[in-house]
Design a protein that fits this description.
Blueprint lengths: L16 H16 L4 H11 L4 H12 L6 H12 L6 H14 L3 H14 L4 H14 L4 H9 L10 H14 L3 H14 L4 H13 L3 H11 L8 H16 L3 H11 L5 H16 L7 H9 L9 H13 L3 H14 L5 H21 L3 H9 L12 H16 L7 H7 L5
Length: 420
């Protein structure tokens, strides 16, 4: 086993100097939502096939993508790493991957928490835990987890900007907006190109109703995130929400057409969420729903993640594709026969929400409202952020209006702060 250590002092088995350079670039990309971290992780393994944390990193990059196809790569990396010399910290990383691959994302956080208790500067353990918290809709653990390790860090440490960005997002989801904004701005002071930190401040500005300020600030900084890929798409999505908040559906639709990609699962999630909001405002969407539903169709029977399912259903309802709606709901019911984290998400939120959206599409607003009205206490189990889950609250209010499902700008502004 090699005696090399990563940039934060954690020992790494089987690495070489060149492999470790690729590993650090991949980790920086994961933290800052930039570049091609998977490609860098692959290069790390080409340099040193016995690099345990290289296998761990590539596996987690795929598992954290929301795309079920990533499980095959993660499983292959796990199987290879399990036959390599490892230390105790690396074994706990592999245990987290194995647990996630069994579908139990909640318990996958346990070995990562053990790692952070012993190695608070393990940046990958922190970043993966933070991602899982987000997927589970956990609004309390994210900022507390980061706060617990902060004493072991300083602003001169490689990756500290990413720690601050994760802290900012956790604070925002917990409703601590002033502290969240301070942490996001501190992260951007260290790394102006940290899209994760941009994203955290986007949420703060949205949750505080500061849409006009958000448009100005993001316009000034667009060069830092004005690229391609899911991360840039998601920041553009937030920009579109600011336009909607200000009653400007035209500019929001222009952002959809010019900036919202449809290549990755995360991108089509944003596409569904934005089109649905535009639909509730009565926008003429033409063929966009049909195109988006076709992009979602290969995932109609995944039942991999309740959050994905709800956004796929938005597209299927918008396009009037009742065949795909039926396929998705049948797949969800089959999935309920299995265990794992997604079982609880599906039972409590995923299936009822999809049933409600299907009823809404058939203009059965009474059923849609009844199903959605029961969700507020458990809606966090869908995963995602408060802003993302807000689409269910908007749909409930549209259903309550009944035969007048398109809101005016003033009605939407009045209801924006009422969570589901």
């Amino acid at each position: 086993m090699s005696a090399l250590r990563d940039a934060r002092g954690c020992r790494v088995s089987g690495a070489s100097g060149r492999a470790l350079d690729h590993y650090e670039r991949a980790l920086h990309g994961f933290l800052a939502w930039r570049g091609e971290p998977r490609a860098e992780a692959r290069l790390a393994l080409e340099e040193a096939p016995g690099f345990v944390m290289g296998h761990v990193l590539e596996a987690q990059l795929h598992l954290c993508s929301r795309d079920p196809s990533g499980a095959a790569v993660a499983r292959a990396r796990l199987e290879r790493a399990q036959h390599l010399p490892q230390d105790a910290r690396e074994r706990m990383h592999l245990a987290a991957i194995a647990t996630a691959l069994r579908g139990d994302w909640d318990r996958a956080r346990e070995p990562l928490a053990c790692i952070l208790g012993q190695h608070p500067r393990d940046l990958l353990a922190l970043a993966v835990s933070h991602t899982i918290d987000h997927y589970l809709g956990d609004t309390q653990d994210p900022h507390e987890r980061v706060a617990a390790v902060l004493p072991a860090w300083s602003r001169d440490d490689p990756g500290y900007h990413g720690v601050l960005a994760m802290h900012a997002f956790g604070l925002e989801e917990a409703g601590r907006y002033v502290q969240a904004e301070e942490a996001a701005l501190a992260a951007l002071d260290l790394e102006p190109g940290d899209i994760r930190a941009h994203h955290a401040r986007c949420h703060v500005l949205e949750m505080q109703g500061r849409a006009a300020e958000g448009l100005r600030w993001m316009g000034e900084r667009a060069a830092h995130w004005n690229g391609s890929g899911a991360s840039s798409t998601h920041v553009w999505w937030h920009l579109a929400l600011y336009h909607l908040e200000l009653g400007d559906a035209r500019h929001a639709l222009e952002i959809y057409d010019r900036r919202i990609g449809a290549e990755t699962v995360n991108e089509v999630i944003d596409a569904s969420a934005l089109l649905w909001r535009l639909h509730l405002r009565g926008a003429a969407l033409g063929e966009r729903w049909r195109v988006l539903a076709a992009r979602w169709a290969p995932h109609a029977e995944d039942a991999f993640c309740a959050f994905n399912d709800v956004h796929a259903m938005l597209a299927f309802v918008g396009a009037g594709r009742r065949d795909l709606q039926r396929r998705l709901r049948r797949a969800q019911r089959r999935r309920l026969a299995h265990g794992g984290t997604n079982h609880g998400m599906l039972r409590d939120v995923g299936l009822p929400a999809c049933e409600a959206l299907a009823a809404f599409g058939k203009q059965d607003f009474t059923t849609a409202a009844r199903l959605l009205r029961d969700l507020p206490a458990v809606s966090h189990r869908l995963g995602g952020s408060h802003a993302q889950r807000g689409v269910l609250g908007l749909t409930l209010r549209a259903a309550l209006i009944g035969d007048r499902p398109h809101f005016s700008h003033l009605q939407m502004r009045k209801m924006r702060s009422v969570p589901i």
